[in-house]
Design brief:
The protein has helices spanning about 70-80, 100-115, 125-135, 180-195, 205-210, 220-230, 245-260, and strands at about 25-30, 35-40, 45-50, 50-55, 55-60, 60-65, 65, 90-95, 120-125, 140-145, 150-160, 160-170, 215, 235-240, 270. By secondary structure, the chain is α/β, with parallel strands linked by helices. It folds into 2 domains: about 25-130 and about 245-265, ATPase, nucleotide binding domain (Nucleotidyltransferase, domain 5, 2-Layer Sandwich); about 135-240, ATPase, nucleotide binding domain (Nucleotidyltransferase, domain 5), CATH 3.30.420.40. It has a 6-stranded mixed β-sheet with strand order 3-2-1-8-9-15. The chain has a 5-stranded mixed β-sheet with strand order 12-11-10-13-14, sandwiched between helices. Strands 4-5 form a two-stranded antiparallel sheet.
């Protein structure tokens, strides 16, 4: 079969970033308070407030893990990333999503990301991205506790797949004189207890014995983590730079996807890993 000029065989593998000049990639974590991005042209994570700027002041397009303003989210992404992408070519995008966000969240997120002209969009549950960033053994049951600014998620992964998850619309941004840190810790303990009591797979005890992975900005708060340790009576495993864990895990998955021969395909698709 003759290969068209300027193209590569479909079986060719890409060079590792940043040496690969033929394509670009974006790992994206759209948080309610912060948006974090890794791109193939950068060695660091871009970490900015999740806000839109307009004539009426700042807007907040994502609230409590829900995209409430899809066009505003698209404008924010274009402002942040439009000038960072090569004029030629279309990026491979891996997007983290709330574990319980479902099809509705992924549909809204994909619509917003279209402003970046992606070649392919892959979505990954935030908890799985966190586990990848922590280099956790996904062959064993794993409990991930992600305490964000506006949302706290507890997820059970078995062989890397979400088998149970709970969340509460409560996070570190809610802490004030009327909402003490203990409220977040107690909410996590209640979610873990409920998952353990209703676990049909009997995997929760193993996951708890290994110790939950702790991510999100709340993992940097001793007033939360100490109370959580006392409530769960198991050791916690805070991961390095927990507030950027999701996007770093997505970046690792992006590198893997980029190296795969199928990354040369010129098709658009959305997958949930």
């Amino acid at each position: 079969m003759t290969t068209p000029p300027g193209s590569r065989p479909a079986t060719a593998r890409h060079r590792a970033w940043p040496w690969c000049r033929q394509c670009s990639g974006i790992a994206l974590d759209l948080g309610s308070a912060r948006t974090r991005v890794w791109t193939s042209g950068r060695r660091t994570v871009l970490d900015v407030p999740t806000v839109t700027v307009g004539g009426d002041g700042n807007g907040y397009p994502i609230r409590r893990g829900t995209i409430v303003d899809t066009p505003g989210t698209a404008r924010m992404l274009d402002r942040l990333l439009g000038h960072r992408l090569p004029r030629a070519g279309r990026p491979l995008v891996i997007l983290t999503t709330p574990v319980l966000g479902g099809l509705a969240y992924r549909a809204e997120a994909r619509t917003a990301v279209e402003v970046l002209r992606p070649r392919t969009v892959l979505t990954v549950p935030t908890a799985r991205a966190v586990a990848v960033a922590a280099d956790a053994d996904l062959a064993c049951p794993l409990l991930v506790v992600d305490i964000g600014a506006h949302l706290t998620e507890v997820t059970l992964l078995v062989e890397g797949t979400v088998t149970d998850a709970r969340c509460t619309a409560l996070g570190t941004s809610d802490l004030d004189g009327r909402t003490p840190p203990a409220r977040i810790a107690d909410a996590v303990v209640a979610m873990v207890t409920g998952m353990r009591d209703q676990d049909p797979t009997h995997q929760m005890p193993d996951a708890l014995r290994r110790g939950p992975l702790l991510a999100g900005g709340g993992a940097l708060r001793p007033d939360i983590t100490c109370r959580l340790t006392d409530g769960l009576q198991v050791p916690l495993r805070p991961i390095h730079a927990p507030h950027t864990a999701a996007v770093r895990g997505a970046a690792q998955l992006l590198r893997t996807a980029h190296a795969h021969p199928s990354a040369t395909a010129n098709t658009d698709a959305t997958h949930h890993r």
